[in-house]
Amino acid sequence: MSPRLRDFRHWLALAPVLVFLTVLFIYPVAQLLWLSVWSREGGVTSEHFARFFHSPVYLQVMLVTLKIAFWTTVLCLLGAYPLAYLLSTTGPNTRNALILWVLMPFWTSFLVRTFAWVVLLGRNGAVNSWLKSAGVVDESLELIYNFAGVMVGTTHALLPMAVLTMLSVMQTIDPNLMKAAGTLGARGPRAFFRVYFPLSAPGVAASGLLIFAVTMGFFITPILLGSRKESMIAQLILFQVEERLNWHFAAAISVVLLAGTAVLFFVYDRMVGISALAGERRDEYAPAAPRLARIGAWLSTNVLPRIGDLIAQMLDVMDKVLPAFGRRREARMGLWFVSMAILAFLVIPAFFLIPVSFTEGEFIEWPPSGFSLRWYREYLDSPVWQGATIRSLLVGVATAALSLALGIPAAFALTRTKVLGRSAVLAFTVAPLIVPHIIVAIGLFYLYAQLGIVGTSFGLVMGHTVFAVPYVVITMMAALKNYDVRLDQAAASLGATPRRTLFRITLPVLRAGVFASFIFAFVRSFDELTVALFVSGGLATTLPKQMWSDALLKINPTLAAVSTCLLVFITITILASEYVNRRKFSK
Amino acid sequence: MRGEAEPQDMSGAVAKVLVEGVSRRYGSVTALDHVSLEVREGEFLTLLGPSGSGKTTLLMILAGLLEPSSGRVWIDGKDATALPSFRRDIGMVFQNYALFPHLTIFENIAFPLRMRKMPHPEIAAKVAEVLQAVELPHVAQRLPRELSGGQQQRIALARCIVYRPSIILMDEPLGALDKKLRDKLQLEIKRLHVELGITVLYVTHDQEEAMVLSDRICLMNGGAIEQLGSASQLYFSPRTLFSARFLGESNVLAGELTESGPALAQMQAGALRLAGRPNGDFAPGERVSCMVRPECVRVLEDGEAADNELQVTVKDVIVVGGTTRIYSRVHDGSELLCVQLTSNAGAPLRPGTPLRVGWRSQDCVLLPGDDPVAAH
Questions:
Q1: What is the average per-residue pLDDT within B162-172?
Q2: B67/A1 Cβ within 8 A
Q3: Angle between helices A511-527 and A543-553 (to 10 degrees)
């Protein structure tokens, strides 16, 4: 096969995903950009933007959005760092076990997690009931439906992502460096702040940018856990589309949100490269963004060590007062304690839904009164809930199948070749993870309305695949990166044709990755609300959308029952896949 | 064993493998530059060279796992340049063995037989037989990761010989093993080669391994063949300074040719006049180097004479078991190493002692060029 022919074949493998994303991702978003500068009467105009920037109400929403994004970022970074540090410095077995727990909320439905916080922190929630019975307070405290409530929700949602982003950088830090620093005379804390922390700083910066950008597009959390004062920019878009049917203005707000996200990801790209989202490290010699690189270098050679020394000196002083402090064992124990507390924050809330779902009462309250299965009966007997559940399952399986069909060939082409523009193609493929979902969702809504496929399962599958395909590509690329190409070469030298090599060697060896991709894509679709909110209408509703509609009225025990079923279902799926992987690969 | 292979070769000079002007470029980098090579039926040929010399690239091209940018590959007289790997009658043993991690040892070895659609009972018999041959009959039901490195290596070998390919390609197959195991497996590979009469192409960067195993060694450097010949040809008659330095230890004295001749030439290195076998057609005045192996340099007794003699000062003397290494300095500052059998007789040499050393003119070669890099 000549090199040119091979190049052609790799482009052929990339073509389906590129065409798919162009039609269902780029085109709808571009249409929005067009709408934003198009007057209702026709003609190019800046009136929609002028309206946005001249209204103090909208500007206020923008400020609130930035404020929420900022504090979420701060909280996520503070919470994620110790956990990521523990994970990167512990043995592989402990790490794998802990990562499973970190990922737990990631797998748990977004809505389920939000409901859990209502059960835990609501007026009649668990925390208030304990505080009252302990006599700390007389009246229930307002723990949610305010800024703090939104913070809890967003931090809980994004902390796992922050941990994983930091971890990917921390795992590349050679543990011998800390030992070397020790032999060179730097004691524990000093070595940490002079050596480890500066080296991990790129990971902190990367996850900070990521969290900030993602939070800006949130709207479910502020609606369910905040008050009117915590309205975010994505809610404005939702409102304009759903209530006002003002597409042009909604498009203009989308452009503002998109521009904000784009700026952040531009900085992110300069710092670590967009392809880092796909687990790729930028070539160290790439002369990208010399100025930013210089700022980074200056920070890590001048500022960070100073801060480190300062903290180390403070610790030295504290050492004299409190001799136990700073000793390795105690420090390690402290780290474990803090990390476990953060893990508990991540994992425990969801379990509060389970007892509530068995209540006899009409409302969500803590402690639940009595025991009954009536809410489960309610869920399982309702044709609406049944239909929604079945549709979600079918759409999930179809989405996963389509995503694998599009994503696996692309992952092969992207890992196995150095085709021209490879990193651009990769960035394009993961772009749907970057663009706020609501923008893609209303873009698709607009497109589907033109095509007349709003409310169809077909449209839903296509829309979900836009978000699921990047996960498949990323997961398969990671699996392929650890795949030894010599296995294929060996098979070929032993007489296997390319097709037999693929089905007898490559895919079986990669089956963990294929399986994980399928689960990933399925769960993404099964849990997806934003696209479903617009695209699935009337009777053709999905489970998350049905939950959402219910929750907007009142968070009731039926939702707790549905959530519990979801929790059990997802947990079994994940544990089963984990079991399959471990049994096959670590015997 | 060559004797057995010869009759089949009588039909004419059809080489088992013929490489014709093969090049391979990666962008602007040339990994292989117009290489031509002939491998004979039943031969054990080693591609030897430092990393980056193109030896693995050449092997991959022979295996059909890499296409040449230009040139042709012939196998058994047929053009195989465009033939995919699975249609060539070859076997390959990989550096890290490339055993399929999800298949048992039995299934790994059975894989090539299944690809050839061999019936089941026959497969079982063949696998058992080959496991016996590599002395691992009890591991059939295990997974590759449950075996030690040496065992995995043998299984990789077994998987390769089970379908009797007429050529086996090996890419540093012993690279990951420790010295002792390597020595043992080298002999085993040699035994299998003799028993099966297969043509073997072997890649290594270990000169000792190359000398132990090969009928011929193809020394590669910078994407081209530096020299091709038997181990002793390469050792005693290197054609270039690179060959001289890559195989074994060497003393190199640079100078200018004064008198050329077909069997013997003279050169002037500073104040020294040296005579040696010229390796090439030199004209008087040309820059040349005199290369002599350390074990050919003798310490001369009083009154003893040699074709080439020079005065040196002892720098260091190290006894390495059976041999003694005398490091010395020539008056012009260059260094000379002399290796002798260790002897208990006479007073030990001390640093600073002046010494007269010499060697026979047929023990040294005059090579083109005078690369100033020290030989050791």
A1: 90
A2: yes
A3: 30
